[in-house]
Amino acid sequence: MLIPTTSARTFAGGKRRARHWWLGGAVLLLAVGTSVQADEPDAEARAYAQKIAIGTCGTCHGPTGNSTQPKFPRLAAQNANYLAATLKAFRSQTRGDPDAIGYMWGMASELDDATIAALAAYYASQKAEASRSGGDSAAISRGREIYEHGIEPEGVPACSACHGADAYGTKDFPRLAGQHAQYVLKQLASFQSNMRNVAVMHGVAQNLRLTEMQAVAAYLEVQP
Ligand code: HEC
Ligand code: HEC
Fold first, then answer.
1. Is the CB of 187 under 6 A from ligand 2?
2. Which CATH number fits domain 8-124: 1.25.40.10, 1.10.760.10, 1.10.260.40, 1.20.1070.10?
3. Looking at domain 137-221, does it have CATH number 3.30.70.2200?
4. Which of the listed residues 104, 200, 223 should we mutate to test ligand 2's pocket, taking the one with most ligand atoms within 8 A of CB?
5. Is the distance from CB of 134 to CB of 214 less than 8 angstroms?
């Protein structure tokens, strides 16, 4: 898909740059030709995204998206479509649990579509490093059962049906393999309470008990 010559991106990029402190490098984007593939960032957008990813986002998510702190989700090898969609959800303030509000709304508010696409491509192409091996083995095996088969009497579907047998996700569903258990647990609770308001995951999580969420989170964290 071609972006028209008088691209909203260039215009918005200029406006945003003027009032933001960490996007100084956005000037690079303004020099870029306007006929680009919307979902295939050009070299300069990529270079700029890499700079932000390492210099800004990396403070929390790690330079390659392999965050080591459980509060900060791992982004390495995550699907580009999901990354772009979720960054836009932070930007439009529709992904709204307290940590999303506190950490990511401000971060995403100044990103234009081209930068979001390039950041998504950057993280999607990073290699996921092996995660920690902790976790209680009984919880991990219960988690595996839930992941692969769901919990029929509670109407919980198998996670693998959407997130894939290996939890690498697909074009449309996020990768979960190797994600921090604490983060996964918190997201499941947020889907359940609708603080993170996504109908499909609310349906999945609505009947999950805390121990079941903990189990599936423990399983996912140790997946390579
Ligand atoms: C000060 C710390 C901090 C910085 C800097 C930061 N983030 Fe985040 N980010 C977080 C936290 C905390 C969350 C989890 C929010 C939640 O629990 O909903 C998050 C979540 C995300 C997610 C969602 C991941 C998922 O699996 O759904 C993406 C994508 C993301 N950040 C990208 C970025 C990008 C790109 C930047 C730089 C422009 C950035 N972050 C900068 C703290 C940070
Ligand atoms: C019918 C498809 C479907 C099934 C089944 C499903 N999910 Fe999801 N899941 C999704 C979608 C779609 C998203 C992305 C939500 C969004 O747009 O923010 C998601 C997101 C998530 C996230 C947030 C990822 C992140 O990085 O923030 C977690 C955690 C999650 N799912 C866990 C599970 C678990 C555990 C199960 C099984 C108990 C499960 N899902 C079953 C479709 C599904």
1. yes
2. 1.10.760.10
3. no
4. 200
5. no
Query: pLDDT (tens digit, 9 = 90+) per residue, 46-94?
Result: 999 999 999 999 999 999 999 999 999 999 999 999 999 999 999 999 9
Residue 106 CA to residue 94 CA, distance in Å, equals 13
Q: If you take atom 38 of ligand 2, which residue's CA is the nearest one?
A: 159
Sequence ranges of the chain with CATH classification 1.10.760.10: 8-124, 137-221
Q: Rounded to an integer, what distance in angstroms lies between the CA atom of residue 68 and that of residue 180?
A: 8
Which one of the ligands is nearest to 83 CA?
1
155 φ/ψ sector (left φ>0, alpha ψ -120 to 50, else beta):
left
Ligand 1, residues 20, 23, 57, 188: which to mutate, most atoms within 8 A of Cβ?
Answer: 57
Q: Residue 133 — pLDDT band, cuts 50, 70, 90?
A: low
